[in-house]
Amino acid sequence: MVVYNFKRITVVPTGQEFIDIVLSKTQRKTPTVIHPSYAIARIRSFYIRKVKFTAQNVHDKLSQMIQDFPLLDDIHPFYADLMNVLYDKDHYKLALGQINTCRNLIDQIAKDYCKLLKYGDSLYRCKQLKKAALGRMATLLKQQSSSFQYLEQVRQHLARLPSIDPNTRTLLLCGFPNVGKSSFLNKVSRADVEVQPYPFTTKSLFVGHTDYKYLQWQVIDTPGILDHVLEQRNTIEMQSITAMAHLYAVVLFLIDPSEQCGYSLEQQTTLFHSLKPLFSGKPTLVVATKCDVKRIEDLSPEGKALIEGMDAQIVTMSNMTDEGVSFVKETACDKLLDARVQMKVSGKKANDILAKLHVATPVPNASAQLRAPSIPQSVIEARGRKKMKDDDDEMEEENPEAELPEWLRGLNSVEWKKGYQLKSDEWKFDNIPEFYNGKNIADFIDADILERLEELEREEVEREDGTDELEGEDDLTPEQYAQVQEIRTRRRKLIAAKRLGTTPTPPARIARTKLIENGSISDMEQHLISLGMNPDAAVDRARSRSRSASRTGRKRDRSSDILADEAVDKQAKALSKSRSRTPGPGTGLKDAKAVQKTRTIARAMQKQRNREARKGEADRHIPDLRPKHLFSGQRGIGKTDYR
């Protein structure tokens, strides 16, 4: 759980931006129109309202700013010292103090000028007092520009700080630069820290999170530390010192026995001894990295003596080959868990809880004799009845047909199976499976199965040869027999191709309408007669539906048919033209005089609509006679009609 969330701090504007924000809000939220003819009390309240509103607006914004920034005396010592290292505690407190003083001065200015405005005797004097009050407020805000800029930089840097929980389970990595701290962090956590082959790649604290024994752990990667006096260490190194001093965590001090980091083993052990006061009371683990290059066993006696003199548990690992990485993580986590448990046990709370608990252990009476269990007779009888019932049920399950008469018992009954002569008597009462070794058992029970199989195969061969289809065709000539064989061979090929999906696409069929497009009713009649069908009904239906002009010139058998078709076509043409024609303006009136009278009335009715600029009878639009953009202006004290 993260205790502090510095990302919620409000953005700090510059001095000029602060003034613009405040005055703009005053202009928007307060009345803007006043006249000398108003009563003096109304004029005074008008300007007092502006001064009070501006002062309250500035007070709220400065108060929010002071509340958002953390107070160094109220936060965890780790964050307090870290902010002192990064931003200089004195400068930080001075900036917040100046903001607080500015807020108090602005409140006092508003109070003083409101008193003066109560004695203003004209609009001009009230306006000048208001102007002086807002001007003094703006001057005070301008004077705080440097404090605003400093606090904005602090806010941006605090928002970029990692979210470190000082009270949770923590693994703290420290040591000389370029010994493998960031690589180990990337291996054991979900962090992605930049790793480079040169020192001081890490210039600030980085945090990663991992899981062990269903618990969440945070792993902190600190910048590299050099063996200097505390006063000579820079800001980057002081971040590591702050974390080691204030965070209760298991300290993993990483050393490089191969000395590829650029520092000798003696310098690394000296740094460990100089930082040892910061490790007091915390579980410490010395990790020898880069064991794939050089192991502790390969060191000289002097190097081994230096490492043994560190007086801490020593483990080895390699970030390149992942050798020992998991073991280092598990060992460090176990050491921290044991230390936390030991701390709780040695505390005052543990004694208070143990004093309230009492575990009672019964002591056996040596003088008492062991007595046998006493079981009631009714229980013994009930157990016997239950056992007899269970035995009867088992017998019924073994011989389910025992109660059936002998003539109803099947071949699979127990009495029948007793007569089986098998290799082993244990097989007699086994159930016969339906399938065995992938074969159907029923296929081997029938005695004539082989003869029937030969008969089926012989029948199949005859069908393939086609001899069964040629029965009764002995009277065919050799040419006819050859044609029949060719037809049947082709049919078998088509069937096989259809099954394989290789049948060629049949040619597209010509639409039936194309075949009869150029025909006539008489041709259809003759065709039906040639087929032996009665054409009267079909001919009558075709003639009743025919309305095309193309049929007028066709040749008919009888002249009466031609005349009838022509009359029907002319009538159809006239009807279709009359339907498609748009009715004229005088359609439906009895004479030209009525048409003229109708037009005169229509023109008279249109005159009124033309005067009102209406589009038609359905136009109900009412034009705006006072457009807002021409008649709106500055509003008064009590009017909000147009703004």
Structure in words:
It is a single chain. By secondary structure, the protein is of the alpha/beta class. It contains 22 helices and 8 strands. The strands form 2 sheets. Strands 2-3-1-4-5-6 form a 6-stranded mixed beta sheet, with helices on both faces. Strands 7-8 form a two-stranded antiparallel sheet. It is flat. Residues 547-557 have low confidence and may be disordered.
Task: Give, in spatial order, the strands making up the sheet with the most strands.
Answer: 2-3-1-4-5-6
Global outline: flat
Question: Would you identify the regions where 5 or more consecutive residues have pLDDT less than 50?
Answer: 547-557
Structural class: alpha/beta
Main sheet, how many strands, which sense, barrel?
A: 6 strands, mixed
Radius of gyration: 55 Å
Order of helices and strands: HHHHHHEHEEHEHEHEHHHHEEHHHHHHHH
Give the strand content: 5-15%
How confident overall, as mean pLDDT? 80
Supply the number of helical segments.
22
> How many strands in all?
8
Oligomeric status: single chain
Distance between the termini: 50 Å
Q: Portion of residues in helices?
A: 40-55%
Give a quick precis of the structure.
Helix content is 51%, strand content 6%. With 643 residues, the chain is an alpha/beta fold.
Question: What distinguishing features does this structure have?
Answer:
single chain; about 650 residues; alpha/beta; 6-stranded mixed sheet; 22 helices
